[in-house]
Specification:
The protein is α+β, with helices and mostly antiparallel strands. The chain has 3 helices and 4 strands; from the N terminus they run H-H-H-E-E-E-E.
């Protein structure tokens, strides 16, 4: 009986990690940064891999910072702009250093901010909101 319960708990934990739901906010943000770096490094400029990782921040006020950007329509331009900015920061590479993590309460909800440093000396703060169980990138400063 103990083995069955232990295996069920392990399966549930692995399921949470697989869908990005497990861990602290910082761990979840760091995993999505890694996924975004991978998606935004596409040399062909197809940034559809970033869909579901970026917060919608377009003209539709009902969706702004409340839903995830897809790879369709206006949402595609949001992904392209976000990935272009990330690509410029990465300067052709994929390396970065995580510097400091903080949480900030704002009108949209809690922003989870990961400060980063890049090999070319640039620094940036990537700000995430939790949307539909996903840490979605909402802003880059």
């Amino acid at each position: 009986m103990k083995a069955v319960i232990r295996n069920s708990m392990l399966a549930a934990a692995l399921g949470l990690v697989a869908c990005g739901g497990g861990g602290t906010p910082q761990e979840r943000v760091d995993r999505n940064i890694s996924k975004l770096v991978q998606a935004c490094s596409d040399k062909q400029g197809d940034y559809s891999g970033a869909a579901g990782l970026v917060a919608y921040n377009g003209s539709d006020r009902a969706r702004k910072y409340k839903s995830l950007a897809s790879a369709e329509g206006e949402d595609r331009s949001i992904l392209n702009k976000t990935c272009y900015t990330i690509s410029k920061l990465l300067d052709g590479g994929k390396s970065y250093t995580l510097v400091k993590f903080e949480e900030e309460a704002e009108s949209e909800g809690t922003w989870y901010v990961q400060h980063m440093k890049f090999p070319n000396g640039q620094e940036a703060a990537l700000a995430f909101l939790e949307i539909d169980g996903t840490m979605a990138l909402g802003d880059i400063d």
